[in-house]
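Handout, section 4.2: multi-component inputs.
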Amino acid sequence: MSARRIVITSGKGGVGKTTTTANLGATLAKRGKRVILIDADIGLRNLDLVLGLEKRIVFDVVEVAEGRCQLRQALIKDKRFETLWILPAAQTRDKDSITEEQFAAIVAEAAEVADFVLIDCPAGIERGFRNAIAGAKEAIVVTTPEVSAIRDADRVVGKLNEKQLPIRLIVNRLRPEMVRTGDMLSVDDVCEILSVELLGIVPDDEEVIDTTNRGEPVVLDETSRLRPIYDKIARRLDGEIVPFTNFDSQGFLGRLFGALKAG
Amino acid sequence: MTLLRGRGLGLEIMLAGRDFDAALEELAERFAERPGFYRGTPATAAFGAGAPTREQLDVLRTVLQSGGVELKGLSGSVEAEALALENDLEFVRAPAGSEELARRRALRPKRELKLSDSARSLVADFAGARADIADRRKRGETSVRRSPIAPPPSAVAASASPTQLQLVEPSPATLYHVGTLRGGQSLHHVGNIVVVGDVNPGTELIASGDVVVFGRLLGVAHAGAQGDAGARVYALHLDATQLRIATCIAANEGPRKAAEEPEAAMVADGKIVIVPLDKAGEVLARS
Amino acid sequence: MHVLREAQDDDDREGAAGAVRIELGRAIVITSGKGGVGKTTTTANLGTALAQRGARVALVDADVGLRNLDIVLGLESRVKHHILDVLEEKVTLDEALVPDKHTGNLVLLAAAQSREKDEVDTDKMRDLIARLRERFDYVLIDCPAGIETGFRNAVAGAQEAIVVCTPEVSAVRDVDRVVGLLGNAFKPQLIINRLRPQLVRKGKMLSVEDVNAILRLPLLGVLAEEPEIIVTTNRGEPLALRQENATGAAYHAIAARLAGVDVPAPTVEIKETFLGKLGSLFGGRR
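Output:
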């Protein structure tokens, strides 16, 4: 049985790849899937931090590649979930410490024992990016509705097309009130520019900063409004057709989300 | 149920309440998966309220040998004690209540997830990790020289089984670094390491001797990396991401607020403990 | 110190930027490791502010393949040639430098969009920066995210560094890594960006002290989260053009400090009314 192997990438840094990887992985695990998250950002690892697992790192992906330990020894189980593990990146090494072949082999090995392998890709389109996509069979491109992010995403889409990876899009950190005033691109604008199938729309939420600082994926919070959104994304990933929610304009109330789509 | 557990410098093989043959099959599989991984590690077999037969003991030893592991001790019932004496093995008294624990464990419904065999072995295995760190140090990193020196007599008295690991040379050289170390940087040294400055998160200090940080220790420090469990970690402000001494690993997962005073970390009773600097002497006397 | 070179090439003599300078300009790389913290925005705004003070400023986009500095300045339609064209000597430096449309004394050397970072020759990059230093008071190099080839090339030729960090744990870790890689030779100074004072007060965000407790760098400036930034980057009008805007003013203060003027210690340079505005624009839980 082989898992879905999905790389989560963007080109632009800081748009939410790591946060998306963590929250999507956690959501899939909560739905009963066996999920392995792999941090491909060697030298600038953050996935462990975002999940609050940095203190439990004994081995990392480079040591697995060098054969100094087995994959299962390097995997860290997130005790908050039944079926979520992470393979951390190395911090004291750099991206030249692992080859594309080695990385692909590790992803393949992880795919043998999981339902989903999500790969957190570093920013950029250099060696780190090439390593990260090496083992993937699908891609999720994360972008924010800003011109620079979209331009970078476009470049990345081009590179992913070269490898013929199916791509879907998550538009992150949307601020509907800014879309309404014309200060931010709408989701439709983004999709049209990138011509990529939409997987999800995640609104901006100030809780995310605090929760990532504390190492608690925001989907752990039952009251978080991002939880049902990631749940929908997970369901779409599973093949379900889930409509994008329309926020009722009655619920406006100064919460400013108006009659705009999210979800 | 866990088959292998790390205990101090060696492995504990948990056979209480398990089907012996199935357990040994799993053990053999583990060794086959990673030959040489546990090599050189001593092991104790725990039988809980029971005892093995002579034949079972032989089979156990054979399987262990295939992984390069030597059986050093047994724990279990009175029969197990007798068998241990007969075979020149140590008999480890189980802590009080462990019989009850073993009985309860055996009665507990199997809570294992329905996973494939390889998935089941996915659980991060700290026992394996610790043994591997010892193994790595023995094999030697490029930056860490190996020195084939016999363990000093004082170390042997403390542990139940004589250590198989290399120990630090007497009077090792000390690496002295002035300045703050930043994330991604690492210092590896045969001998002691002294840093005058902070050690930021994401930094690694690996020493065969002691680690002293005259500043804040926020990264990972590994003292006694070649196996010296008597090595210490000292810091003016000890708030490491992870501490390692010989083959023990400790991470502060709870909301412990780092104290404002200088502290020392050392191994006591097979675990890493952190004490204020002025109490360090007491702990040493007790252990 | 570089030995002053006689103007020998045609492009040096003919250049719009004029004669060879007596004192070499300062080449400063603006970096962070972490993406999305505001390197490009800082480069554009700081460059604008410095130029408005009368300095001659060249901005270099070292993010080959993912160029953005031109967008932030609103110059994307005016870019005809890029840095690789210059490094490969297909065009002269002057042909590639694009004058800013808002501020005099400010030029841009754009990155290539369809090329790769490893196509940049590090030694040639160093020479290029050296040539720019001969003609400009400040050469600000916008560094890409990460610590790979792009980073190494951006740093080649710079003598100083400004690191930009947001008050988030992952950013602090990445910046710390970069500062470690840079070493003391670059005399790194820190700009903390995207601070949200009300979140800091609620204990939901790192404070300036928290960040600098790890980084321990001289603080060049602190900027609050500014929703207008997105608008200005989308429209290509740096906030530094508007001194009445709190963030615009902050960039001017930073420029002054960089120039060695003794501006009072950086605090969060925002106004009271601004706080109210922040509150209403950020929906979600409070």
